[in-house]
From TrEMBL:
It comes from the Bacteria. It comes from Hyalangium rubrum. It holds the Pfam family Zn_ribbon_TFIIB. This is Zf-TFIIB domain-containing protein. Residues 82-120 form the Transcription factor zinc-finger domain.
Amino acid sequence: MASCPFCYGTLLPTFSNGLQREKCGRCSALWFEGEALAKVMGGSATDALIARARGKHGQCKGCKEPLEYVPQCSKCGHAAPTCPHCGTAPLSVAVVHGIEVDVCPDCRGVALDKGELEHLQQEAEQERDGGLDLKPKLEPQNLQKPQCMTCKRKLKLEHAFVYDTRLYCGSCAPQGSAPYSVELARASPSLQPTVGTYLQGGGGWTAADPISYAIGWLFSSMLD
């Protein structure tokens, strides 16, 4: 089993109707594999987060000292946040809406300590309580020259899928995509992108659990 990026406790797989993740049994930190994030959140959003994190310093979880190219903090001796997959240390810190997110630019994985997760959920819940329309909508301008957001292949609308107000082909459509319909085309765009708001589970469309919703909100904000 993999070790927690922050305290080296054991990461345990956590399954739900939402985004797959691993949780530390010691400090309750969460680790999201890059492949799972890209599959559910879409390549554009994950690329935006990686671009924001690349080249940034890490941060000591013990004393908050900036860390760069070191396996442990020279000030307090605390081990640097480390990728449980490839061992990169320290993880880079990307700041999104005031939330510090630890990211591995190589594996594209994301780690959140307990405090970061609580902050993220509070921000996401405020957006949800603000009355956002949580149904996937299609931006009208995407109908002018329909093409897949990922591979740029030209599309026939009857074969297209909609996710986060964008069109995808069947091969590139992220998990949770909805088949194109006239209703989606007629709907006005959401106030915010709807990445991660609804996920495709074994029993069909289900509302995302609170953590998946929060992660979806974080990634959707990367595309604003």
